[in-house]
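Input/output pair, single chain:
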Amino acid sequence: MAYVTGSRLDEDLPPSLGERVLEGWRDMRASTKRLIAEAPSEGRLLFYVVISDMVFFLSWTMKTVLAPTAAAQGQMPLEMGAYMVIAFLMRTAVLYVFAAGAYALCALVGGSGSWKDTRIAIFWGTLVSAPFGLLAASLTVGLSLGERSIPALGDPILALPTYYVGLVPFLWFISAGLAAAHGWVKTSWPFLALSAGTVALSVLAVYLSA
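Output:
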């Protein structure tokens, strides 16, 4: 089987993981379809999830433990370090549950993809979007270091959005993957549905913690 990534044609080897991620950035739908056609093993999918888990843990450790901004420190519980470890350990299981729920909803509204297609779309989307979370973490660290000499950088209006901006590409790439897996032309509908669900869960979390 010949593999194509941009202008590259290799008759023997599939694209490297880095090339696959770049392809996902350029065209997530095509990248997801390629991966589905390859019928990856569950071990390979789990490998993708574990890598995204590691990037997730690194980015949030940078933002919450190593160099949090002053605005964020005031809103974080003292046990944040322990919460991060728990989140890292549970994230893989949560993604499987999320994939199961997404598959059920997609099938309910007429999606044509299988349960495995849905897992591929979501797990691949988490990995493709992971570097954006790391980029947001780097920006947060920059603000934290810069506010020592420029106090205005510690303003919550500037500081707090960097903790959540990585969520946008996370939802977008997963939405594009789901659209490809289930045969939908538009990515916007899955994206709006996931965004609405995220907002609802955030409101619920704030309510329960109040």
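The chain has one domain: 17-209. Residues 17-209 form one domain.
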